[in-house]
Amino acid sequence: ELISSLRSKLRTLWEERQLLLSEARACAERGEELEAAVRDVCKPNEFERYMMFIGDLEKVVSLLLCLSSRLARVQNALRRINGETDAEEKQSLNERHKLLSRQREDAKDLKENLDRRERVVSGILAKYLTDEQLQGYRCFVQTKTSLLIEQKDLEERIKFFEEQLETLEKSIP
Predict the structure, then answer these.
(1) Which of 42, 95, 130, 140 could be stapled to 47 by a disulfide with Cβ–Cβ 3.0 to 4.6 Å?
(2) Could you give the CA distance from residue 22 to residue 19 in angstroms, rounded to a whole number?
(3) Where is coiled-coil annotated (predicted)?
(4) 52: Cβ–Cβ under 8 A, 6 or more apart, which residues?
(5) How far apart, in whole angstroms, are the C-alpha atoms of residue 47 and residue 49?
(6) Torsion angle, CA of 19/22/27/30, rounded to 10 degrees?
């Protein structure tokens, strides 16, 4: 029964993934349309600034999500430490925790810098785009960020259930 339930949950998550991928494709198309509009109206250096911001948006958000996920796994492992855990493993986990915490703080600094750059880009675009186009740009940036977060969360949940299913199937003779 449990295996059947896990398989059903995984099917549902895989369907969600397909819907999310479809949304991501639609967002990418909107991004291409927006890019063309920005290229048409902005000066080359302003367009370059816009393109750098959009490219860095995905990188920085993905980095933050990845580091947060890895840090959470290490914190969970640290919580499972008991008297039987050897000192070397404890030390390794503590070092990884410190490293990932520092890296996440650095990534947060990158995100703050990215937010400042977004305000600059938004100011540039406000000079050239209509209110409707500017609203479309803001919506695109929000949607792109939200989709990245949703995709990461969904992939984590799929991975978790796949591992649960695999462990359960191996435990049954």
Answers:
(1) 42
(2) 5
(3) 71-120, 144-171
(4) 117
(5) 5
(6) -140
Residue listed under structure tokens 């990884």: 96
140, 31, 110, 45 alpha-carbon torsion, rounded to 10°: -120
Taking the C-alpha atoms of residue 134 and residue 125, their distance in angstroms, rounded to an integer, is: 7
How far apart (Å, rounded) are the C-alpha atoms in residues 95 and 130?
Answer: 51
Extract the tokens encoding 117: 């750059």
Joined tokens for residue 2: 């449990």
Please choose, from the candidates 148, 140, 142, 145, the residue with its C-alpha nearest in 3D space to the C-alpha of residue 37. 140
| Domains of the chain: total | 1
- Give this prediction's pTM: 0.83
Q: What angle (nearest 5°) sits at the alpha carbon of residue 159, between those of residues 107 and 29?
A: 65
pLDDT tens by residue, the chain, 173 residues: 889 999 999 999 999 999 999 999 999 999 999 999 999 999 999 999 999 999 999 999 999 999 999 999 999 999 988 888 888 999 999 999 999 999 999 999 999 999 999 999 999 999 999 999 999 999 999 999 999 999 999 999 999 999 999 999 998 87
